[in-house]
């Protein structure tokens, strides 16, 4: 039976089925409401701690009912239960909970064992939650108090340096999404390396919809056993985001705000105008008169600092106002967030307004819970042309920004200067993107029977994007076009149904938890269009009123990219999981998910993703009770398989036609349509199998705790375009599953509280991770590929060279470069040929392997000090063992072009006659290791005795305080995502140093 429903049935059948199911369980819930009258059984006793001291305020309840009491100041309690075979559930904060069977005894005294605080912390898992002590997977949890501070545009940056194995990199561009990779890259598809996000139980929700101040905690699921419950989308790990929730009988109003001054943290040292003139004069050269300006009305030579001209000190500010409250049956929460983040490059900026609302209603004695969650964000991004970043470095400093007549100093012909005026690039080109995202989620949770709960979750997501670009009549990017406008608009929607049962049963020392569920998802993407036109009578309207353009015949272009190509993707899943726990010592978990996707070939639309894990809490064994060292000790082992379908074109397995050119037919210009993609009915998921072994421990009464994990992550069936013969296929390539990639590593995290007393405390946390990445295979018996050339950076005389290759046995990001041998007697750079000889004219066949961009060590170290009302946080992070290709320095190292473009101060040590100095070689491959004092925060919390203000804190923060590194470029934090990691290629948006003043107030 084909499990992929046709579109006309895809909505109707699941909705009807789930509606009927919900009605059935609600009826059952109501039917079981009346309690069966039975004779009561009285039980009483005393609750004490492990030192036989009374414990007041302990909760004693009859399991499976709402019947319960709390112990008095002497630890005494009295409770009437249903019968003599009832079970008492005894719980108290900071102590191990106990379930005790009455067994017909009227007098029952119970002693509770003290529990380490951190073991009580709640950890969010797929379709459920548990306490940290019961976790047997590799899961890292970060609470709001531990988040990275700063001007945060994407919530994923809150985790930077906080989670072992999680690598996050980002430039200073406010509109650039950070690169996020967990436990090494495991795919060759650039858009498919990021973890899968789940927000408040909604899978696949965009994380940038949530304001950082609205997040309570983030849990990172890393091993295969933890992620496999999300099946085909979880190969890169799963990040679970939990937002702040209101508490019953509490009204809370909070206002969090900051204002930050952002400055460029470092700039490249290029020559000033006077230094350039001197360098040329020393080498018997001189600038052309047109390139050697003086300030108007003077004889003073021009010294234009182009980096200063396009950069600015930016003032960012963020405001978050929230209201939460409710009664025992109804809770609600609302928040609004506004972020204004101007970039430090003139013309770039990010503005975002976010709204969040939620309401929960309980009924039928808490047997029914209904919840509604709404998120909405509106973002406006302004970007500058990429060319600004390179031209601010190499445009001649000896010319004016504007000529006396007010026109920009510009080389429209392109033969006087080798670059363009960066200020003019900003002034004459506009690029605006508006993004509106909406997420609505409705949830119904029904307690059908004691321990049995049914949950139905319905969610809808909608993303509307409008991009407007205008190059005016003076723009060098649209020379002679009298203005060029491009407008694109598209909408993406996603609808999700999650329906699942949870059953929790305790029998003596045995505890069982069972999950069974069904998931349905439909993505409808690329519903839009785009058009470009030119020839405007005036620049005043920019991209507005495209009908006023006067384009020559054939110059109106319609967008044919993925953003405006309509596609529909459907996913259907069945999943189950069972957890078994015995005596709080032995743990076992097994899960299985069956995923179906319409994106893959008709022969492989379904896949199974199993997982199994086990844990042994050694500290609970009788032979450990007398040990004075370990407060907690647990061994974990797991194995799981998950898939990767992220960033995947829903039409990738289909035969596709597209526009392949234009031709004349009877005097008319007609679009030619032809096949451009072969079908592959056997295309299937990329599969990642991961083995994980770990140990958790706590010693010295919990003052020192930590975890060590080892993992072996093997990904197979990598998807790539392989060359095929046109005697068998229509086109020359086929998207197929062939390759394999390996990631193996170790992660260590240590948490300590060396000092803790009434007035002063010190908490410290350090995490270190090591990962080894390598391509295991690129070929199979059917498809063969020697290597995949990447990173063709271009540059004078280098348009056919590549700087990285994907090779079997080597990591992603392996550099292939010319091997630099020094200068010859004439001062010209020389290189090694493939046969070992020396040459001044290397060719593509002389490229050699020269290290890789993957760090061998990532680390983060956080320290929090408190003294009375003061708090101080110091956070250090860094990487080691990686290489960075400084292609920016190579491109600027052009002494022979110094009459047309600027050069680095580094270049003044080069021979003016070195015709090869700019060639990209291992001469420019640098050590990428760094240690950064990333965050320094000092705050003070006022002691306020008020009925209206419960907390008031002010703080100052410096972000990116200093960096220790041997790297000579702008910043060593280079993007490690995609297929070309670790390359600084004249397009790096400078990192910023932020100075922030903030306020936290709770009313």
UniProtKB/TrEMBL annotation:
Transmembrane segments: none annotated. GO terms for cellular component: cell outer membrane. The keyword Transmembrane applies. It is a multi-pass membrane protein. It is found in: Cell outer membrane. Residues 1-37 form the signal peptide. Belongs to the TonB-dependent receptor family. This is Iron complex outermembrane recepter protein.
């Amino acid at each position: 039976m084909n499990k992929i429903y046709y579109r006309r049935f895809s909505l109707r059948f699941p909705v009807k089925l789930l509606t009927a199911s919900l009605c059935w369980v609600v009826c059952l819930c109501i039917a079981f409401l009346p309690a069966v009258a039975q004779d009561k059984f009285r039980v009483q006793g005393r609750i004490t701690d492990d030192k036989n001291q009374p414990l007041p305020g302990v909760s004693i309840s009859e399991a499976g009912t709402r019947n319960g009491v709390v112990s008095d100041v002497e630890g005494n309690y009295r409770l009437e239960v249903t019968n003599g075979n009832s079970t008492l559930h005894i719980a108290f904060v900071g102590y191990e909970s106990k379930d005790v069977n009455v067994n017909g005894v009227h007098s029952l005294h119970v002693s509770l064992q003290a529990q380490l605080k951190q073991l009580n912390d709640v950890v969010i898992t797929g379709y459920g939650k548990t306490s940290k002590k019961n976790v047997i997977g590799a899961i890292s949890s970060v609470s709001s108090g531990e988040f990275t501070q700063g001007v945060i545009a994407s919530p994923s940056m809150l985790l930077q340096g906080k989670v072992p194995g999680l690598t996050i990199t980002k430039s200073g561009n406010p509109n650039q999404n950070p690169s996020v990779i967990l436990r090494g890259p495991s795919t060759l598809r650039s858009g498919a390396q990021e973890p899968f996000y789940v927000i408040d139980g909604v899978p696949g929700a965009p994380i940038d919809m949530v304001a950082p101040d609205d997040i309570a905690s983030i849990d990172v699921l890393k091993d295969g056993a933890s992620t496999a419950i999300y099946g085909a989308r979880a190969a890169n790990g799963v990040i679970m985001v939990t937002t702040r929730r209101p508490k019953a009988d509490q009204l809370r109003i909070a206002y969090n705000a900051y204002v930050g001054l952002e400055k460029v943290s470092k700039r490249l040292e290029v020559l000033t105008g006077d230094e350039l003139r001197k360098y040329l004069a020393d080498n018997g050269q001189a600038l052309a008169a047109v390139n050697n300006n003086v300030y108007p009305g003077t004889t003073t030579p021009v010294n234009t600092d182009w980096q200063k001209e396009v950069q600015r000190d930016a003032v960012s500010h963020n405001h978050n106002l929230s209201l939460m409250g409710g009664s025992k049956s109804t809770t609600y929460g609302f928040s609004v967030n506004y972020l204004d983040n101007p970039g430090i490059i003139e013309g770039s900026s990010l503005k975002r307004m976010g709204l969040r609302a939620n309401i929960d209603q309980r009924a039928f004695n808490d047997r029914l819970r209904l919840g509604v969650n709404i998120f909405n964000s509106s973002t406006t991004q302004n970007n500058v042309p990429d060319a600004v970043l390179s031209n601010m470095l190499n445009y001649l400093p000896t010319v004016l920004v504007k000529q006396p007549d007010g026109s920009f100093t510009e080389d429209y012909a392109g033969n006087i200067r080798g670059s363009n005026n960066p200020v003019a690039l900003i002034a004459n080109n506009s690029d605006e993107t508006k993004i509106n995202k909406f997420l609505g989620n409705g949830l119904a949770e029904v307690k059908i029977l004691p321990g049995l709960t049914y949950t139905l979750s319905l969610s809808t997501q909608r993303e509307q994007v409008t991009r407007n670009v205008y190059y005016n009549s003076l723009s060098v990017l649209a020379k002679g076009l009298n203005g060029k406008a491009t407008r694109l608009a598209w909408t993406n929607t996603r609808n999700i149904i999650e329906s699942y049962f949870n059953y929790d049963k305790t029998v003596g020392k045995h505890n069982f938890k069972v999950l069974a569920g069904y998931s349905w998802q439909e993505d409808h993407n690329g519903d839009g269009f785009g058009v470009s036109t030119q020839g405007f009578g005036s620049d005043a309207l920019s991209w507005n009123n495209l009908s006023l353009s006067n384009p020559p015949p054939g110059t109106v272009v319609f967008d044919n990219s993925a953003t405006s190509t309509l596609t529909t993707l459907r996913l259907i899943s069945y999943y189950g999981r069972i957890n078994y726990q015995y005596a709080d010592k032995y743990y076992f978990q097994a899960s299985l998910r069956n995923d179906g996707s319409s994106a893959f070939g008709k022969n492989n639309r379904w896949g199974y993703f199993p997982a199994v894990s086990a844990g042994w809490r050694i500290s609970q064994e009788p032979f450990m009770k007398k040990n004075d060292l370990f407060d907690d000790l647990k061994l974990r082992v797991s194995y799981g398989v998950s898939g990767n379908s992220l960033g995947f074109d829903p039409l990738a397995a289909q035969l596709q036609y597209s526009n392949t050119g234009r031709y004349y037919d009877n005097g008319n210009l007609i679009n030619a349509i032809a096949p451009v993609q072969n079908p592959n009915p056997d295309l299937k998921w990329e599969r990642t199998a991961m083995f994980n072994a770990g140990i958790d421990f706590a010693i010295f009464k919990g003052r020192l705790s930590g975890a060590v994990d080892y993992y072996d992550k093997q990904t197979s069936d990598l998807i790539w375009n392989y060359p095929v013969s046109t005697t068998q296929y229509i086109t020359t390539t086929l998207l197929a599953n062939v390759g394999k990639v390996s990631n193996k590593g170790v992660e260590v995290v240590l948490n300590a509280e060396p000092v803790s007393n009434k007035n002063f405390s010190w908490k410290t946390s350090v995490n270190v991770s090591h990962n080894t990445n390598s391509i295991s295979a690129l070929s199979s018996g059917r498809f063969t590929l020697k290597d995949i050339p990447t990173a063709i950076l271009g540059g004078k005389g280098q348009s056919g060279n590549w700087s990285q290759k994907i090779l079997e046995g080597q990591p992603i990001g392996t550099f292939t470069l010319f091997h630099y041998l020094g200068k010859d007697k004439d001062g010209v750079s020389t290189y090694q040929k493939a046969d070992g000889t020396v040459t001044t004219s290397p060719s593509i066949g002389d490229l050699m392997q020269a290290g890789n961009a993957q760090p061998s060590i990532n680390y983060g170290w956080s320290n929090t000090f408190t003294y009375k009302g003061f708090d101080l946080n110091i956070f250090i992070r860094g990487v080691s063992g990686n290489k960075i290709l400084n292609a920016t320095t190579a491109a600027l190292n052009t002494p022979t072009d110094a009459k047309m473009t600027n050069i680095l101060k580094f270049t003044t040590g080069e021979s003016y006659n070195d015709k090869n100095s700019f060639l990209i070689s291992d001469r420019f491959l640098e050590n990428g290791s760094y240690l950064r004092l990333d965050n320094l925060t000092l705050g003070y919390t006022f002691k306020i005795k008020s009925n209206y203000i419960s907390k008031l804190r002010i703080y100052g923060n410096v972000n990116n305080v200093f960096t220790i590194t041997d790297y000579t470029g702008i910043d060593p934090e280079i993007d490690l995502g995609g297929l070309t990691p670790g390359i600084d290629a004249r397009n790096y948006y400078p990192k910023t140093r932020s100075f922030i003043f903030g306020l936290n107030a709770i009313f």
